[in-house]
Structure formats: structure tokens, C-alpha cells
């Protein structure tokens, strides 16, 4: 089982995303002469990389039939703890691993509450969304820590030497490629799709459902903490409110990429295309001096479209299949064999 949507539907969806992306690029060139400049390419990509990195584990979680709404608060908690440790004299070489382990533990908490306590992931992660943000406020309060070393901050907004490619884009590219291969070419990926399609059937067929889903939540916590570190590096500042509002953009990117909100189907390639589609759209709107409120409206509309359109397409496909079955009721039925008559 490859797990994504039906191959033809998948191809149509990804081709549609490519067409939309090309149209947005054309629109950007019409809105601003600097849209295709190397500097603007660096700006539009680096501004979305934290969202893109979190979208990688979110893809796995939603395909597996769950959701994690706490990611933006884990970003803020990671930033706050990193800033607190640095202000206390802890070197970044020690502070960053501590923050990443904290992300793993936060994901473990989500996974245990969902799988061991049997609570809905929507409710659990909504609760930890508030919990992690509250902890970030306790750790750092309203202050900001901004005296990080230049080598650390250069990673967040610096480019690969001789190219317009930001370092965070390299991180996202590696993560998306590795997770994409694991998702679509390994037994682990097949188990994720199987659990998302029918958790009960997957459990009876030997899939370790609890361990798998807890692992997905831990991966989400880990990469959310990593995104918090990168965001702190890019902004040259650690704040407890870092990442506010990021969950909406992450879920929008994943669903716009063709991942079924009910689980069981989707691809990493579609999510990557959706990330760049959102990045180009928001960059074009900023270059056109569109108000921030209207930019938020555009993201909300994309989220609605990314949920409604695939579901309408699936309902239409079922109606067409039913109509064909009613038109040809004997199609696919076993051939009737005349009874045996012995020769006289």
C-alpha cells in the first residue's frame, strides 16, 4: 500500500498546486520588479521555514489520523528556554540539545495522553497549547534575550556561501526528503497510512499503534523545538511569545498539500509544494503592500478550500461510481455457468 490518495487524483492535485504556484510567481513578477531577485527569493523562503519544518511531522500525524495543535507553543517554549539558559551562562552547545530533549518530552506527553489515556488529540494538544505557552511565560516572562553570538544568529538568516539559498531551507529540504522516503518507501510509512485508514484493522494486523503514534507526537515535539531554535536564530531574539499563530499556517500547508484531514492519505511532495505556494502568496501580498489582515484572510480561505475541495471531489467520485454501478448492474458480477446436463 502506497498510502497516498488514488494515483490519478494525487497527480491532478499536485499538478494543480504546480499550476497555482506558477500563477502566483507570474503575479509576483507583475506586482514587483524585484520579485525574482535572489535577495527576495531568500527572504520569501526563510520567512516560511519554521512553518515548513513543523509541517513535516504534522503531515505524518494527520495521515495517521491525529492532529497536534500545540506546535506553536512548543516553538515559544523552546525559544524561551534557550534564551533563559543562554542568559544563565549555559553555552549554546549545551542549551540547544537540552531544548531538543524538552521537545521530545513535550511530544511524549501528548502521545501518552492521547494513546494511553484514550483522549482525543484535538483536546489534548489544545490543552498543551496553553500549557506550553504558560510555561514559556513563566520561564522568560515578558523580557527578550537578544545577545546571542553572531555565529548562531547568522545561521537563521544567512545563506549557503555563493547562493541565495538560506541555511534553514537546507534543513527543511533534508528533513522533507528523508521523511518523504520513509513515508512512501518503507514499512514504517505503510503502517502510518494503515493506522490512518483504519486503526482497528491495523492493530489486528500487528501494527504497534500505540508505539507508532507516540513516536509521531515525539517527532512533532522535537522538530517544533528545532523550529523554535531556528526562529530564535533568525530573529536574534528569544521571546516567550515566539511562534504565535503558527499552527494555522502549518495545518493550512499540510491540508493544502493534499493530506486528508481524516487521515489515511497524502504525500510529502504535495506538502512541499503547498509550503512554497503559501510562501510565494504571502511574499507577493507583502510586496503589493496588502494589509496584514487581508493576508490572514487569504490563509484562512486557503485552509477552507484545502478541506472542502478534496472532500467534494471524493463525494463526486463516489456518486459517479454509484451511477456507473446502477447503469451496469451486472458489471463485475461472476459469469453464470449453465447447469451440467449429462449426455444421454
Quick take:
Helices cover 72% and strands 0% of the residues. With 344 residues, it is an all-alpha fold.
Strand content: under 5%
Instruction: Write down the overall geometry.
Output: globular
Determine the number of helices (DSSP H or I, runs of at least 4 residues).
14
Helix content: over 70%
What is the CATH topology classification name? ABC transporter involved in vitamin B12 uptake, BtuC
Secondary-structure class: mainly alpha
Task: Please tell me how large the radius of gyration is.
Answer: 23 Å
Taking the alpha carbons of the first and last residues, their distance comes to: 54 Å
CATH architecture level-2 label: Orthogonal Bundle
Main sheet properties:
none
Summed up, the domain count is 1
Which regions contain 5 or more consecutive residues with pLDDT less than 50?
1-7
- What value does the average pLDDT take? 88
* CATH secondary-structure class: Mainly Alpha
Secondary-structure element string: HHHHHHHHHHHHHH
Count of distinct strands: 0
Question: What features would you describe in this structure?
Answer:
This protein has 344 residues and is mainly alpha-helical. It has 14 helices and no strands. The protein has a single domain, classed as ABC transporter involved in vitamin B12 uptake, BtuC, CATH 1.10.3470. The chain is globular.
Write the layout of secondary structure elements.
Layout: H1 7-31, H2 38-46, H3 49-63, H4 71-87, H5 92-115, H6 121-140, H7 150-157, H8 167-185, H9 187-197, H10 199-204, H11 209-235, H12 246-256, H13 268-287, H14 292-327
Helix pairs in contact: 1-13, 3-8, 3-9, 3-11, 3-12, 3-13, 4-5, 4-6, 4-11, 5-6, 5-11, 7-11, 8-9, 12-13, 12-14
Amino acid at each position: 500500500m502506497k498510502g497516498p490518495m488514488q494515483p490519478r487524483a494525487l497527480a491532478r492535485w499536485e499538478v494543480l498546486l504546480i499550476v497555482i504556484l506558477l500563477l502566483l510567481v507570474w503575479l509576483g513578477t507583475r506586482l514587483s520588479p524585484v520579485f525574482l531577485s535572489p535577495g527576495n527569493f531568500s527572504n520569501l523562503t526563510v520567512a516560511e521555514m519554521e512553518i515548513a519544518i513543523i509541517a513535516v511531522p504534522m503531515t505524518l500525524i494527520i495521515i495517521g489520523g491525529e492532529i497536534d495543535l500545540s506546535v506553536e507553543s512548543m516553538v515559544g517554549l523552546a525559544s524561551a528556554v534557550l534564551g533563559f539558559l543562554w542568559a544563565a551562562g549555559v553555552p549554546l552547545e549545551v542549551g540547544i540539545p537540552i531544548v531538543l530533549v524538552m521537545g521530545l518530552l513535550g511530544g511524549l506527553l501528548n502521545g501518552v495522553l492521547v494513546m494511553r489515556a484514550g483522549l482525543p488529540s484535538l483536546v489534548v494538544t489544545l490543552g498543551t497549547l496553553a500549557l506550553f505557552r504558560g510555561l514559556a511565560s513563566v520561564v522568560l516572562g515578558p523580557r527578550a534575550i537578544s545577545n546571542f553570538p553572531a555565529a548562531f544568529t547568522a545561521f537563521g538568516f544567512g545563506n549557503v556561501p555563493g547562493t541565495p539559498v538560506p541555511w534553514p531551507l537546507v534543513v527543511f529540504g533534508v528533513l522533507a526528503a528523508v521523511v518523504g522516503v520513509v513515508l512512501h518507501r518503507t514499512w514504517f510509512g505503510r503502517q502510518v497510512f494503515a493506522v490512518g485508514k483504519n486503526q482497528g484493522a491495523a492493530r489486528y494486523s500487528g501494527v504497534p499503534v500505540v508505539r507508532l503514534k507516540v513516536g509521531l507526537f515525539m517527532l512533532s515535539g522535537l522538530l517544533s523545538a528545532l523550529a523554535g531554535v531556528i526562529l530564535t536564530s533568525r530573529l536574534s531574539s528569544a521571546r516567550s511569545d515566539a511562534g504565535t499563530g503558527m499552527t494555522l499556517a502549518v495545518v493550512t500547508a499540510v491540508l493544502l498539500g493534499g493530506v486528508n484531514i481524516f487521515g489515511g492519505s497524502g504525500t510529502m511532495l504535495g506538502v512541499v509544494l503547498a509550503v512554497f505556494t503559501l510562501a510565494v502568496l504571502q511574499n507577493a501580498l507583502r510586496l503589493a503592500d496588502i494589509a496584514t489582515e487581508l493576508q490572514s484572510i487569504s490563509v484562512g480561505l486557503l485552509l477552507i478550500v484545502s478541506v472542502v475541495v478534496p472532500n467534494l471531489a471524493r463525494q463526486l467520485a463516489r456518486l459517479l461510481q454509484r451511477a456507473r454501478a446502477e447503469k451496469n448492474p451486472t458489471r463485475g458480477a461472476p459469469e453464470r455457468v449453465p447447469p451440467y446436463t449429462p449426455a444421454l
